Amino acid sequence: MRIGFFVWEYPPRLVGGLGTYAANICPAILELGHDISVFTMNDGTLKTREVLKGIDVNRPMLADGSNILPIFVTEDLRRWGTGIKFFNDVLIYNILSATKFVNDLIRKEGYKFDIICAHDWLSAMAGIMIKQETDLPFVFHFHSTEWGRSLGGGSETVIHIEKTAAEVADRIITVSYPMEEDLMRHGIDPEKITVCWNGVREDLYDPARVKPEDIANLRNRYGIAADEKMVLFIGRLTAVKGVVNLVKAMPTVISRHPEAKLVILGRGELERTINELISRLGIVDNVKTRFEFVSEEERILHYGSCDIFTAPSVYEPFGITALEAMAMEKPVVVGAKGISGFRDSVIPSGNDQTGIHVDGSNSADIAWGINTLLDDTAKAEEMGRRGRIRVKKYFTWSKIAEYTVKIYEEVIKTVERNKK
Question: Would 249 disulfide with which of 146, 254, 332, 366, CB 3.0-4.6 Å?
Fold first, then answer.
């Protein structure tokens, strides 16, 4: 197949989980013998077109029309304030990408595409426009939703874009069964939806790659002794990740396990709130923060250095960090109430148990989950070993790519059959 792949972030420009997905799924699909043309954002410093590791990467150069957009847009977008510049960039990126795809790649250069896919609302408009212009098979990937990210509110404009893409698309792929249920609850056609999980590079996220001396150095950096227990959080410091409730849980954890020390690694709007809460609770010695994005290698070292990984999210469409921790043979404590893809990946009981499910909105429940693992470290270590086995069985990028390609091929056949 030749695939048109529309995604807001792509290497070397990575922002979050969507970029991690794109950076891994595209090479894995290429490895299966398919061609990919990626259309992604340009921050003004990148080439407008280049081939990266065999993948055709297109980055239209943007123009700033944010000062005139409020004249045309709804009251909903006017409330974005300075965020209107972000919407401008997304809008222009979609329009230029769709135009270049149709006029340059197809009509001028003669590319014969078999299918197009767009990822989240950030690229949905390009998918909608190209589908209407070319009638190519169109798959829309829901990695998250506006109503979920905003915990029930959000932008009416973004919700409209998401639902329109779902209506226009020939197939919808989402990342977990809880997400599938949520999409159906919001009126998305269940006949269109297919679940395809995300993955992890098990060769990269491998505890055997991490040197004991590097682990010792990292733990020393945070003041964590060999006989103490490192609890790790990695993620955006935002409300949906449950990090404030995690900090609130620590006094209960420390009262039972004074050897426990929490490391928070990430950036976000809650940095100041977290620091103030740590000070107010008097747990400065047991909670260490590092508010920055770090390289993947350093993230892997953090996973390798911890005893427990926790991600007490209150909304998590999939949750790739839990997979990364499981691949590194770490037991996990994850938020599993509500819309949580962690329920698909983390087994909470029985002979195959890999971690603990908690209510991320309840600090007492988070404390219970962490304490449960600290109470029986041998059992926790066994959960970690099972976690890597589970990742290798179900969640490698090669397996995810194979299933994604299978779905795409089914969509192409269905669209062709319906045209006859």
Answer: 366
